[in-house]
């Protein structure tokens, strides 16, 4: 099973061009998001192997300052990392204080606001659902993320998409 998620900006631009009847135009690179990060994800999910493979094209937010820091699920291995099209994998270092036990923290060189980076990673996410116990009727059962034939559950807290922050805090 293969799912590809793309930025809504390109779809909006394509629709606008189709209905405008205007001559083709050259579009400048989109400005960096006002805050946070913009992701362009190409995601492959293999339920039988509990595997995920991702190519994430990222544009750094305008509020970015300081060194690059992010968290990613500890079952995922980074296979490539580029900044501005240049290999920067050797500059990534494992951090020491992830915000949750199932995450790994990473740090790397600073990226200018609006800077582009690409992160490729893959691996296994398989935390079978556990019964919550006494509050299960309110909170439901729990998992940090699962990919399997029974279904897929990946939310922000899973860490399947890098959670970026900087020395100044979360973006």
Characterise the protein shown here:
With 171 residues, this protein is mainly β. The protein is built from two helices and 13 strands, in the order βαββββββββαββββ. The two termini are 32 Å apart. Residues 1-34 have low confidence and may be disordered.
**Overall residue-averaged pLDDT value:** 76
Helicity range of the residues?
Answer: under 10%
The secondary-structure element order is EHEEEEEEEEHEEEE
Structural class by helix and strand composition: mainly beta
**Envelope shape:** globular
Distance between the termini: 32 Å
The spatial strand order of the largest sheet comes to 1-2-3-9-5-6
Low-confidence runs? 1-34
Q: Count helical runs.
A: 2
Main sheet characteristics: 6 strands, antiparallel
Radius of gyration: 18 Å
In total, how many beta strands?
Answer: 13
Approximate strand percentage = 35-45%
Task: Offer a concise description of the structure.
The chain has 2 helices and 13 strands. By secondary structure, it is mainly beta.
Topology readout:
Elements: E1 2-4, H1 8-20, E2 38-46, E3 51-59, E4 68-73, E5 76-83, E6 86-87, E7 93-94, E8 103-108, E9 116-124, H2 136-139, E10 146-148, E11 151-153, E12 163-166, E13 169-170
Antiparallel strand pairs: 1-2, 2-3, 3-9, 4-8, 4-12, 5-6, 5-9, 7-8, 10-11, 12-13
